[in-house]
Predict the 3D structure of the following.
Amino acid sequence: MKDSKTKRFGILTAGGDCPGLNPAIRGICKAAHYTYGMEILGIEEGYRGLVEGKGRILQPHDFSGIIHKGGTILGTSRERPFKDPVKVDMMIENYKKWNLDCLVVLGGNGSQKRAYWLAEEGINVIGLPKTIDNDVEGTDMTFGFHTALDMVTDAVDRLHSTAHSHRLVHIAEVMGNEAGWLTLYAGIAGGSDVIVIPEIPYDIQKIAAHVSERLRHPEGFSVIAVAEGAVSLEESKLPKKELKKIKNEGPRAGERVSKALNKALGIDTRVSVLGYLQRGGTPVAFDRVLATQFGVKAAELLAEGDYGRMVSLKGEEITSVPLKDVADKTKYVPLDDVAIRAAKLTGAVFGD
Ligand code: F6P
């Protein structure tokens, strides 16, 4: 057994689930247990379990045979404990009661932010970036993204054939409230001729002109990928509060694009909201490998006692970054991103 500064740690999965959480749990736990002999406490249902003291010691059979499974064996929740100081105290008490040397948090932006806040309260934490949205700052890639990307690409492919058969305009609404990575990549992979992402507010007249041109062709059709967080130029100028209301209470982004196009062109577009199908299911090989590499890196940080960091992918390298540098930040698609350029140069329109 190799020496380890961490003898016993807790692990939780927080926020929306994604494929790759189980391979990551397996990666950390196997490396921590077999290489360093650490004890592992599995905390149930994310931060809610840390507040309520719901945890169990994980044995090798718990983290074996799970690499191919979607979701998370630990369960998750969208608990926001920092809204209530009593819950913060409860988390710290449980951390102490369980005699943990560190807490490992598998989560997206919000969960990494909470992990950092816990670090500020004096708790040792290590983060792993997960989400189908790929929008965590400090890493080139999150696990979960590639599985969702394959799913959305398949959906766009399917819409393509029916759009072609019926000479119709089909809209696929893709997850991604803040960032458009999933829509952009699936839009390119699926050959969408219009890609609408939150980073680029769209001018419906420009999209309409493009679609109308395509429909002039005798077999004309169109497949549009719209991120759930997409906004029109007019919407983007609204005060934050008003925009939030539209997003939360009004018709969904795909529906808004559909209605506007119907009005502009007098056509009948169809909308498919891909929803939670994007988050479920078996992780693809890429996510299993990335999650395993992240897990092993986290075990190494635990052994070194190198706390307050999030593991990350930078180019080809699995490395780590200080949590304080990534907490509370979103990794948006840069407007000069190579993928946007590639999409535009192959004929896709963004409405800008
Ligand atoms: O996990 C991130 C995400 O997939 C976002 O793209 C989406 O806006 C959100 O989850 C919706 O999840 P929920 O309904 O569980 O809050």
Q: What stands out?
A: The longest strand covers residues 8-13. The two ends are 58 Å apart (CA to CA). The pocket of 6-O-phosphono-beta-D-fructofuranose is lined by residues 16, 108, 131-133, 175-177, 228, 279 (CB under 6 Å). The chain has a mean pLDDT of 97.
